[in-house]
Amino acid sequence: MKEQTEKWYNKNYKLLLIIPVALLLFSLIYMAIFYSNNQDLIYKDISLTGGTSVTIFGKINLFDLEQTLSEKLEEVNIREISNLITREQKAVIIEIKTEGCNELDVKQTKKILEDYLGYELVEGDNASFECTGSSLSESFYKQLLVAILFAFFFMAIVVFIIFRTFVPSMTVILSAFADILMALTLVNIFGMKMSSAGIIALLMLIGYSVDTNILLTTRLLKRHEGTVNQRIFGAFKTGITMTLTSLLAIVIALLVVKSFSPILTQIFTILSIGLCFDILNTWVTNTSILKWYMEKKK
Amino acid sequence: MVYGEEKMKLSWKIWLLIIVLGFSLLAMFGMPPTFLEKGVLITSVEPNSIAFEQGLRQGQIITNIDGTPIENLESFSNALQGKFNSNENIKIIIQTKNSEAILFSNHVPNITVAEIPKTNIQTGLDLAGGSRALVQAEDKKLSSIEINDLVDITRNRFSEFGLADINVFPVSDLTGNHFMLVEVAGATKTDLEELISKQGKFEAKIGNETVFIGGERDIASVARSGQDSGIYSCDQSQEGYFCNFRFTIFLSEDAAKRHAEITKDLEVNVTSKGSYLSESLDLFVDDKLVDSLSIGEGLKGRVTTQISISGSGSGTTRNEAYDDASKSMHKLQTILITGSLPYKLEIVKLDTISPVLGKEFIKSIFLAGFAALLMVTIIIFARYKKFKSSMALLITSVSEIIIILGIASFIKWNLDLPSIAGIIATIGIGIDQQIIILDEARQKISLSIKQKLKRALTIILGAYFTAVVALIPLLWAGAGLLKGFAITTLIGITSGVLITRPAFADMVKRIEE
Do the Cβ atoms of A252 and B375 come within 8 Å? Predict the structure, then answer.
C-alpha cells in the first residue's frame, strides 16, 4: 500500500501542481478584475477609509437602530458585542463614514445617535468614539501596503541569504506570495471589509508561511539521509503538525473572541484562511517544485 | 554515557530560563507583590486644591485616614463618610506609603482614587480607556523641528490649564509626516479637542492695526493672582447671570511703543462716563472678537507697559457664570503666555474610549489563550504520546508569555490590542519551532542528539531572521499606531531564540537521553 502510494506520487507529483497553479491563476485573474472594478485591492472598512466608530454600551435593538440610522446616514454598519457564554448583548458598534474628526463632525454623529437613543452619550463613559480622518486613513492604508511590500522584500533577501540558490529560494518566496494572494482573494469573495488589523494578519501570514517552507527546503536540500521521498515525508509530518496546531489554536481563539472583538476576529479569520492555503502551497506547490528541481539536478 | 553524574544538574540554558522567568515575574508583580499591597491608589489630584497643596499626588497609595487603616475602595469611602456633614473646616490626616498630609477643609478632598492594580502590566488606551488625538497642521507639512516646538507649546498649555497625566509626544510615519500624539489615560473627561484644535491665536487690535499678540515677544508677563487678577463683579441680566474678570498684563518695550504710535493720532470722545479714544482696543482669540476695551484719554500716545485686560462669562446661575468667567480668564491668560501657533491645527484621529469593556475583554482574551493552549497540548500529546515532551512544550510556551509580559512591564510598554495580537502570533510561532526541535531530535539517524538539536536551531534561526526583517517596516507605518504588534512580536521571538528555544532543546535532550 505504502509502496503504491509512493509510486503514484513519483509518477504524478508534477501533475499535482495543476491544482495550485489553477488556483493561483484564478486568484490573479480575480484580483485583476477586482482591481479594475474597485480601483483597489480590498474592500476597506472605516479604519482605512476614514470615519467614526461609536461603541454604545447597553442593550439596543439592532434592527430598529439600523433602520433609523440608514435613513439619516449614507453608509452605516452595525455590529453587536455580546457576552461569550450568556450571549447577552453588551454593546453595539456603529460605524459611520465621516470626513474629518473635527468637533463638528463628532457632534453631528453624536446628535443623530442621541436623538434615537433619547439619552446623552458621554464620550469615554457610556460610549466610545473612535474617529479617523479620511486623509489620514488614506496615507495609513498606503503605508501599510508599503510595509507589507518591504516586509516581503526583506524576507526574500533573507531567504536568498539562507539558501543561496535560485529555485529553492524562489519556491519559499512564491509560497508566501501565493498564501497572501489566495487569502486576499477569498476575503474579497466573501466581501469582507478589511481593517488595518486585517492587513497586519497578512503580514503575520508571511511569518507562518516561511516557517514551514524553510523547514521543508532545509530538510530536502541540506540533508542527505534517506531518499528524497523519505525526507519529504519526514518534513511533512513535522510541518503539518505545526500548521495544524496553529490552525486549531487560532480557530479556537476565533470562536472565543468572535462575540467580542471585531479586530481580533478579523486577524484570526484571515490567518486561518491563509494557513489552509499554506498547507496546499507548502506541501503541493513547494514540495513538487523542489522534488522536480532535485530530480533534474541528479 | 559519561553524563551520569551531571544528569541531575540543570544546564545553564535551563537556569537562564528560570532566572529570566524570575525577573519577568518580578517585573510583572513587583517586590513586594502589588497584589498583596493594601490601600488605594490616587489616580488624580485637582491642581490648586487643598489636597494638592498638602502634597498629595497622583500615584501615591493611601494607607490610613485618621487612624483607620485603608485596605480598599470600600474602607476608603467608609473612612470619609459622614466627616463633612457640616460646613465647618475639619482636620483629617491622610497617610500615604511614604508621607503624611494634614488637611483642613470643609469638603471631601479633591482627589480620585482606585484600587491598586494587581500587576505592573499597563494596558493601552483601547483597553484601559482614555482619549487620544493625532494632530497635524492644516494645509502645511510640519518639519520635525516644528513638531517638537508644537509639542513643547502644547505641553506648556496643558500644564497651564492644570492638566497633568497627559502625554504629548511627536510621532512620525513612513512617508516622513510628523504628527503630535496626545494621550490622556484613564477615563478623565477632558475637552481634548477644545484644547488642541484651537490655534490659540491672540491679537489685540486698534482699528485694523495690531498692537500686540500672545507670546513672550510682545508680552513680558501676565498677572495670575492677587489683586491684579480675578473676577470682580457678577450681575444678573434678563438672560441670566454674567461675571466680569480683569487681569493685568505687562507689555514688552516694543509693544508698548507700538501702542503709543497707534493711539497718538486718535481723537478723543467725551461721553457721560468719561473721555475715551475714538477707537477701542479689540481683543481677538482665533479671529473671534472676545472683548472691546475702551481706551482712556490718558493713554493717548503714551508708552505704557501695563494694560488691564477684561472679559466676562455667563450662565444661568451665578455659580455657572462665575465658573465660566474664571475658565475664560484662565484660557486667555494661557494664550497670552504661551503665544499662538503660526498655523492651524487639525485633528486627524480622535479616539475617546470608555474603560467599560476593557476588563471583560481581557478576561475573554485569557479564556481564548487558555483554550488555544489546551488544544495545542492535546494535539501534541496525541501526536507524540509522550507526557514529558508535551509538558515541556506547554511549560515553555507559558514561560514565553510570562517573559513577554515581564519585559513589557519592565519597559513600561502599554499593551494595546495590536500588542495582544503580537503575543498571540509569537506563541504560535514559538509552538511551531518547538515542534521542529522535537521532531529533529527524534529523527532516526546516526547523529548525536547535540548535532540533531543544532540542526533544528539552524532552521529556527533562519525563520527568526525572516520574521524580524518582516516586522521592521511596521514600527513606523501609520504613525506607529500598530507599533505594539511589532514590539511584542519582536520581544517574543527574540527572547524565544535567545532563551526559551535553547532551554527547550536542553529539556528535549534530557528527555531523549
Answer: yes
In B, which residues are within 8 Å of A128 by CB distance?
129, 351-354, 357
Over residues B457-476, the mean pLDDT reads 87
Q: Alpha-carbon distance B203 to B210, whole Å? A: 7
Report the topology of domain B38-115.
Pdz3 Domain (2.30.42)
Highest averaged pLDDT of the listed ranges A32-46, A83-97, A222-236: A32-46
Residue B189 phi/psi, 5° resolution? Answer: -90, 110
Better-scored residue on pLDDT, B101 or B356: B101
CATH number of B2-31+356-512: 1.20.1640.10
CATH topology of domain A2-44+136-297: Multidrug efflux transporter AcrB transmembrane fold (1.20.1640)
Q: How far is A39 from chain B (nearest CA, A)?
A: 21
Q: Are strands A43-44 and A193-194 parallel, antiparallel or unpaired?
A: parallel
Residue A35 CA to residue A135 CA, distance in Å, equals: 21
Q: Are B66 and B79 in contact (CB under 8 A)?
A: yes
Neighbours of A36 (CB within 10 A): 8
Which percentage of chain B shows pLDDT scores above 70? 91
Question: For B132-156, what is the mean pLDDT?
Answer: 80
Task: State which residue of chain B sits closest to A130, comparing Cα positions.
Answer: B351
CATH fold group of domain B130-198+349-353: Alpha-Beta Plaits (3.30.70)
| Per-residue pLDDT reduced to its tens digit, B405-422 | 999 989 888 888 888 888
Residues on chain B touching A86 (C-beta within 8 angstroms): none
Distance CA B307, CA B260 (A): 12
Interface test with B, best of A261, A270, A275 (most B CBs within 10 A): A261
- The confidence score (pLDDT) of residue A36 equals 95
d(CA A266, CA A252): 14
User: CATH number of the domain at A51-132, please?
Assistant: 3.30.70
